[in-house]
Amino acid sequence: MANAKPFVVVVGIDFSETGDVALTRAFERASDESEGELHVVNVARAYGPMVHLEIGGEIETLSMEEASRKLKEFVETRLASFVRDREKEKLPVFARAVTHLRLDAPAEEIAQLASDLEADLVIVGTHGRRGMRRLLLGSVAEGVVRLAPCPVLVVRPRAEEGAVPAIEPPCPECVKVRTESKGDQLWCARHSEHHARPHTYHYVHRNIAARESMPMLSPMKR
Question: In the list 13, 17, 38, 187, which could disulfide-bond 30, CB 3.0-4.6 Å?
Answer without folding.
Answer: 38
